[in-house]
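Invent a record, attention on tokens:
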Amino acid sequence: MSKAVRFEQYGGIEVLQVVEVPEPTPGSGEVLVRVKAAGINPGESKIRAGLLAARWPATFPSGEGTDLAGVVEGIGPDVTGVSVGDEIIGFSHRRSSHAQLVVVNATDVTPKPENVSWETAGSMFVAGTTAYAALRAVALRQGDTVVVSSAAGGVGSIAVQLAVLAGARVIGIAGPANHAWLADHGVTPVGYGEGLVERVADAAGGKVDAFIDTFGGDYVELAIKLGVEPSRVDTVVNLAAVEQFGVKAEGGGLAASAEVLAELARLLADGSLEIPIAATYPLDQVREAYEELEHGHTRGKIVLIP
């Protein structure tokens, strides 16, 4: 037996339970991983609350979690390139990574660099691939000026760094507590609130070429007011804005591969990319972890340690 997060109905954090479950067995093309760290994400809160039931319904009892890093404990038939004892970064398509043991496809893992911490490795898939896809969606080029909302959040903190690496001029919208961190990473910080359009325009010193919205609210409308072409606006939150403004809503699904994960891991290993870790919680405190996540305004990622 092993422990895993489960919920039996839609609801708030009170529906989350950590229960004993049978140890999973890897099938053909699968590996069994002992999870060392697993990030949590806002989308999981929305799925648990039933807010995405029309698009991604839950089947009860439901597991939870996509991000993971850990050690391979077993391999199923027809697995090549992965061995027992390998330290890996990976992802689950089955809402199952918030657990001590998880079975994943062998093609959905990549080696964990030795100098990358478990907490960082286990929290990079959803946020990292979402940021990667967003940059691709807005066709970011060297010399462009790009604005990122919630620039110190889980996705935003990675997106701004990838944009800087791409040679763009990056303006990050965030609260004052995160301005020093953004500036240290080559980003021009701008505080949110009244007068934001004018502050961003002043910071840009001219045309804004692209806008990545990782927060929602009225940020897509802000991008349009700034004169950004809708084809170069991507929101990972405000799906209704696609129809209203003709913008894009391309998330991590378009970059959800072990190849992209390996590329991000290389950037982490050589120090080109940092994933800020806001907090870590043991698996038994999964409710407390989501309570902090749902309060918002955390810098970077919150991670479960099974």
Q: What stands out?
A: The mean pLDDT is 96. Residues 127-253 form a domain with the Rossmann fold fold (CATH 3.40.50.720). The longest helix spans residues 125-137. DSSP finds ten helices and 14 strands in the chain.
